[in-house]
Amino acid sequence: MTKKTTLLLAAVVVVAVAVTAGIASLVVGPFGGTSDEADGRTGATSDPGITPAPASERTPDQIGQAFLDDWVDSDGRVVRRDQGDDTVSEGQAYGLLVAVGVGDEDAFDTIWGWTTDNLVREDGLLAWQWADGAVVDDGPASDADVDAARALVLAGDAFDRPDLTAAGVELGDVVLDAMTASTDVGRILLPGLWAQGDAPWSYNPSYASPATFQELGDASGDPRWDELVIGSRAVTASILDQTALPSNWAQVAADGTVVPLPSADGSSGTVEYSYDAARLPLRYAESCDPADVELAARMAPVLQRYDDLPMQLDLGGQSTGADQSPLAYAARAAAEAAAGDAQSASDDLRRADELSVSTPTYYGTAWAALAALQLDGSSIGPCSPLEAN
């Protein structure tokens, strides 16, 4: 979701990360980045105009359909109604994934049609932000592009549409060419064009999606997707070897060394696990490779310390804020499912759905829907952990 619009060459940024789980202070070297869009994830900034209704034992398809009904306009635009009625490429990608997840070909075509008409750049990547009738920031964000590419490939198979498969492969090829880098431990996904250049690289751990990389690799035959699976797993393992939870942002050196950061440029903020990082267990729990699933499972014990799980934690698992979000419970559900605790995972998915209904926000509702479809069904990926149980 996060998108940087320019590349700054910082000097040396030193970040002292105090984590209660016995984690040492970390030193950050020079790299580029600017302010990010993560603040928009913290919740509603205006009334989304959605009347809460009781959530009672809804199925994944019902949860997904409710997201499409409430947050997608008739022309296919996914609207952040709680954030000024703008649209971001990530939202269009989420809409595409949900539409294919619930098997709604008409909704998929409408969302993809609006996306191609309004966000697709000359190079094939998606412009990040649209508002008031026009693109206001045309820099792409790699998580949105790979999610959209995955959705297109899945839709091509689900709807018997080779044209969609080809479009997904083509979009994925541009991502590989423009927004990846090779390290000694494997290839990694850069967050955007702004992050290109020499090591060390700015890195968002929650952008890596092994299941997506595998699906795009199977569709395209391009070995670089396998390299991304390997490199992302190595970097994620390194992060979780250092800290109980991943940070929203990090820095990756050429040798694969990883340092947590408070923000994309490392210059401000608090190093924490929150609205970005919580997507990581969801990305890894749905992988078909047990090594990836094990990484998601590592996070379950620390997240299970809380009944009312805060959205913002430090890297040792201590609360740093009082925000409640469906994503927090969806992320814990993913970790629990990966660890084989199906009942706890199902309970947390239900809690995520209930919170998305009682306090509707674009971001929280999107992830409540995606989590249900990824973890408790086989419509998005072949290895849904709760489906397997």
Automatic annotation (TrEMBL):
Enzyme class: hydrolase
GO MF terms held by the record: cellulase activity
E.C. no: 3.2.1.4
Record keywords, A-Z: Glycosidase, Hydrolase
Signal peptide extent: none
Residues covered by region (Disordered): 37-60
InterPro entries: 6-hairpin_glycosidase_sf, 6hp_glycosidase-like_sf, Glyco_hydro_8
GO terms of biological process kind: carbohydrate metabolic process
Family membership: Belongs to the glycosyl hydrolase 8 (cellulase D) family.
Protein name as annotated: Endoglucanase
Annotated organism of origin: Frigoribacterium faeni
